[in-house]
From TrEMBL:
Organism: Hyphococcus luteus
A Pfam family: Radical_SAM
Entry cofactors: [4Fe-4S] cluster
UniProt KW keywords: 4Fe-4S, Iron, Iron-sulfur, Metal-binding, S-adenosyl-L-methionine
Protein's UniProt name: Anaerobic ribonucleoside-triphosphate reductase activating protein
UniProt-recorded Gene Ontology molecular function terms: 4 iron, 4 sulfur cluster binding; catalytic activity; metal ion binding
Annotated ranges, domain Radical SAM core: 18-232
């Protein structure tokens, strides 16, 4: 498949936070089947937009910075909404970059096909798998479960993260999810603070500052982290 078919809604030439331990360029894929209520990139939800970038433009921008970059991350939106993702990742691999992916695992078959081209995955678990609709507006929990099972056994380094959305995802929900993820074999779990579209912290109860709750959750995993929203 032609890499030029990849729909790109944005590009970040340098990032230190999107791939652990690597300086990465980030390609934001256009389109997402989910409608998460806390989404801070709503402009990336439609399958197409007026401001799309060409893959050739992104390649040109990356080539100019190649000596400084370690990796290229495909984010979104939801990258697995596009079959053109795989040739695009292969193209980056051929240019000597490590390749990362941010995904909610909405397409298990495409995800499994993508794994041979990946060096790291940031996997978003939105809610307990049987309760996805209340957060995402879509019944894709079983697809996410299937993708995570594939990832855990793949040998590809990864982290699983959940965005804490006050009023929908609280302590009770996180406890259920943490137990579920531990049973699936997840070893690294990240709780991240929701951000509003203008990049402020989402208002609400701040359970991410509850030492007892965080200690109990951390005890369930080999690695655990709380990721605060960037305040601008």
């Amino acid at each position: 498949m032609d890499t030029t078919l990849l729909r790109i809604g944005g590009f970040e030439p340098f990032s230190t936070v999107d791939y652990p331990g690597r300086l990465a360029a980030v390609i934001f894929c256009q389109g997402c089947p989910l409608r998460c209520g806390y989404c801070h990139n709503p402009d990336l939800i439609p399958a197409r937009s007026a401001g799309q970038l060409t893959f050739e433009h992104v390649l040109w921008a990356i080539a100019r910075r190649k000596e400084f970059l370690d990796a290229v991350v495909f984010s979104g939106g939801e990258p697995l909404a596009q079959a053109a993702l795989i040739p695009a990742m292969a193209s980056m691999r051929a240019r000597g970059f490590e390749v990362g992916l941010h995904t909610a695992g909405t397409n298990p078959s495409l995800f499994e096909a993508a794994l041979p081209f990946l060096d790291w995955v940031g996997f978003d678990v939105k809610a307990a798998f049987d309760d996805y609709r209340k957060v995402t507006g879509a019944d894709v929990g079983e697809k996410a479960r299937a993708s995570l099972k594939i990832l855990v056994t793949s040998g590809v380094p990864y982290e699983v993260r959940t965005t804490v959305w006050p009023g929908r995802i609280g302590k009770t929900e996180i406890c259920v999810m943490a137990s579920m993820l531990r049973e699936m074999g997840v070893r690294r779990y990240v709780l991240q603070e929701a951000r509003t579209p203008d990049q402020k912290a989402w208002p609400g109860d701040d359970m991410l500052q509850d030492p007892a709750f965080l200690s109990d959750t951390a005890a369930m995993f080999d690695q655990f982290e709380v990721r605060r929203a960037e305040i601008v």
